[in-house]
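Residues and backbone
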Amino acid sequence: MQLSVIILNYNVRYFLEQCVLSVQKALEGIDGEIIVIDNASSDDSCEMMKTKFPHIKLIENKDNLGFPKGNNIGVAQAKGEYICILNPDTVVAEDTFTKILNSQLGTHNSRLGIIGCKLIDGAGNFLPESKRGVPTPWVAFTKIFGLYKISNYFGKYYAQHLSENESGKVDILVGAFMVMKRDLYLEVGGFDENCFMYSDDIDLSYLVLKTGKSNYYFHETSVIHYKGESTVRDGTYMKRFREAMQFFYKKHFKKSWFFDVMMQVGSFVFSLLKKNQQKNEVRTIDEYVVFSKENLELNLSKKATYLSDFNQFVNQSHKNIEIIFDTTTFSFAEIITFMQSNKGKNLSFKNYISSSNYLIGSNNSNDRGQIILL
């Protein structure tokens, strides 16, 4: 088998359904499998998987075992030569896996470590954490205090030696989407289970670098990562984030009193900023544009224009328009391309999932997302 896609879920039933639908399409023509691990969700995630995807392997943990252990359990049962660690609040394009497995980065290259790709949020904006550098004390300092915004000299945290539209070597990739050989994952020990979450992807990327292999950012395919849906920025989040950063530094860098104090203060400030950033954006919608080749009964509250082709859309209005994509008649690749081409134009985006009759999306990377049951 060529590829195993590992999806760890916790209480995001509707995002999980959309994610699995997109992965199924992306695996067409590939000898692959999907493994969903559920970390004791209290919603009906498992019931949904059993009903709608009975052929997909589902592992039901009795407790929330955290991101590292949950993924390790999935990888242990994977059969693919390659694995993809994938968040449930993502949408992959139909050609994502094919492009990566056939890329010039060289999946047959013995020096290949982890491959990541371009991640965008629910509004079509590039997510800079798609490519990062090792967060040494200095690099972390430039990130925490925003110095990376001033000059590329301070730009190592977000690997600003590459633009979002350039592929190349980077140090750290994000755990929302990682492709690597299963043997390499096992060689470095997988995700460190001593870290509950948040620095696990940094640690795994760094462990791969220490083997002498290179990690790569691949810009030629884009994946939506709704991001804010994965975690609520509450007191528990701040505590775990601080613990995770302290875990990484104690594991990989020389211990010193000054360093510990700086990192405790820095990680606390950073986690506070993250908490304050999260918001569910209240956006007034003046009208809807529905892209569909079918007659959908969406019962929308405002005027809706139905279009059957993306080329028919011309935005000459200053009104707030919500775009609704019918995912049964347009590919996820087409939807992602449209979002990127029309970001920041008084538009917001939702996908219509006909299998469960709901709309889903988010307005920015800090928005927990919105699900509208129809």
